[in-house]
Known about the structure:
The structure holds two protein chains of two kinds. Chain A has 15 helices and ten strands.
Amino acid sequence: MARIELRRKLSILSDAAKYDASCASSGAPKRNSLDGKGVGSTESMGICHAYTPDGRCVSLLKILLTNFCIYDCVYCINRSSSNVERARFTVDEVVDLTLAFYKRNYIEGLFLSSGVVRSGDYTMEQLVEVARRLREDHDFRGYIHLKLIPEADERLVALAGRYADRLSANIELPRDEALGRLAPEKDARLIRKTMGQVRLRLEAAKPEKRDRHRPPAFAPAGQSTQLIVGADGAPDTEILDRSASLYGGYGLRRVYYSAFSPIPDSSSVLPLSKPPLMREHRLYQADWLMRFYGFTAPEIGEGASDGMLDLAVDPKLAWALKRRDIFPTDVNLAAREDLLRVPGLGVKAVDRILSVRRYRTLRLEDVARLTRSIDKVRPWIVALDWTPGGLTDAEHLRARLAPQRAPEQLSLF
Amino acid sequence: MRTIVLASETDFAGWKAAARRLRTAGVEPASVRFVTAGSGQDGLFDVDGAAGATAVDDAFVVPRAFMETAGDLILHRAPDRFDLMYRLLWRLRDEPDLMRVVSDPDVAAAAERVKNVHRAAHKMKAFVRFRETRDADGERWVAWFEPAHRVLEKTAPFFARRFSTMQWSILTPDGTAHWDGDALTFGPPGRQEEAPQEDEVEDFWRTYYASTFNPARLRTRMMQSEMPKRYWKNLPEASLIPGLVASAAARTEIMVSEPSSLPNEKFQRLRPPTVDRTSTDDLVAADPTDLERGLQNCRRCPLWRDATQGVCGQGPREARLMIVGEQPGDHEDLAGQPFVGPAGQVLDVALAQAGIDRSGVYLTNAVKHFKHEPRGKRRLHKTPNAGEVQACRWWLDQERRLVRPRLILALGATAGLAVLGRKPSIMAERGAVIDTPDGARALLTLHPAFVLRMPDLEERRRARMALVEDLRMARTEAGLT
């Protein structure tokens, strides 16, 4: 009986947690249990132990401690006015489930969040207590991601960082005004202050070269946040400006974009439709361009129209189509930062080109072996035996490079 | 044609020894083939195909990149992998940089296979599922797994590091790995029947798997590329996939089309107070707490949007000296306190040299939100414009009204503009007390950040001295002891 009850809880509280996109288990320092105590290890690269049919990775046991919540955020399945079934785990139940899953190699660790019950402090204390028991009572060496409750006291944030690898506070919406309208109990200023505080603590935990004593560890895998896409009217350029500001201000490892998705028992304030998955995908690509390709948010905006990214082509290609004057790029001569701007060339391909061209002058077929699709790259480059001629400036270039599939929705099969 | 018989499919030492002898004997790749003992082809030929090969070439050093590639390549299931390894070795003497030319067809083919092997090892770390059993020695954890390539020995140490306090075995068609808590041992191929057939926790895992799936985001192709079907038969959760996929569209349709229900009354009663978002742009503060509150809701200019918080002045209300800076910087913005970053440290040193106790001074800024531009992982300071300074004078004037200092020391041109209402020339006007329209007395000096920006050491020293000199004067003029 008790076990059936527990399965029911697990079902409710994982269903309630799944709208948080983060499932990363990377960035933790190397740990193992070879000292003969406890269980678990982390080796900097995360592992996805399963994939669900939504194409998402299952890396952590992602659950809420409870889906009771005193807040009434209209976009959230757990808002106080919703009629969804409610449940609550005990601290021990979460600890036991985590260990039972971990020992069977189902997961890398735990991602624990919670509805806000009683107060921010009380809720955060419970989350911290789960992490403390895993670490101190069970010597758990796996990954722990804790959600921060922005209203909680600073000391609880400090404790959370002692036990967790990663912390996150969700910014939720790109515009503060929209948060006021859709989540009246949430305070964007508090969320930013919390992230700022986490950054200061992360920096304080980094030892200076001259330091003899290592400062106590604090969330070694850093912090992340999530933005919901499509619940308020914010255009893509505004979302990317917000992301750039968050990356710069708080040293975030990741900003997650979550296409606003239908939830059971929705609010009449926020009508539901199919989630804008392609839009979400383009935002991730743009985010990548900012983090690894040297693009700024305004540059990506050059390829957008009315503030929205082109759904039919990726944002780098959209930008290049507007900036054809600076192409073609000579793969045998161009600097790394210029190669990174060539549509169809990823970071790995660029690094391979740079490595090979020390020994060989590249022909088009060599480039083809270093990239996934030479057709995408051809109009933008010059190689030993290739110049694109009028192709770069051809009128029909966008149509030629755009995939044939309908862009509105990622296909199902 | 020479035939080399290797002891097993992953006999790297055997391959290495034979290949070395063949290469120095000048045996071309086209006239040698490698087979494994027991593969059915070994009996027909000489047992040692490398025998009698006499060295005609000098030995040469192979790059480590080749040894690493070959060590992984041999784990691939493609039967021709030994030949590819030997072909690369053959070419390396005349093309010592070959391994770096990743566009070369042989190197590219090797890289592709190594990638497959790494992926198989990674997927093994991901998809092994232990089942719990009990025997005379206590609990044991056993998994049946079928790796895409022969990565058991390569991957087993990972499980030893992770599950070192558990006794476990991984059984595969290629061999078995066992961990007894101290040592890793390997045995002959296992059979699926030897592994436990169930584990009650799998029901919980399946429950979790089904619940964490969002039917409104169905993307099965993405799932299959990361979790290929070949692994499904040994994954307890995979049996749920067809049902989840089949029902997804209908479940989404229900969620989208179902009319919203009435709010849950019980929870509505619990509603906590909403955040106070009323405008404070015209607030006249009665005291510093009021001022702080007003500042946090201020929308008088757009700088609040990308800042963490407004940074209010700090110091005693009865302070005789008020020091006004330009705006909070990166650190001040995060900490919510003025002058705690690098410029604040310069100021602290200068204050100490001038004999001024920081805790007796009211420290604030002309503009209360941090104006900046994101640049990757950092934020670059931007000077606030006249409009922003003007908008924020609303708050500075209130600080002046509440504190009523004897003297206001403005650091730099922006602070000067905010205090005097006109753009001053710091270098021309510093060193003399200026009377302001509202009757307060002001002094101008350099901003400490200006000191930090001086590239020349000597210039920096002089700027620092000027700052200290002006602080000494401010100390006298403010009547500090």
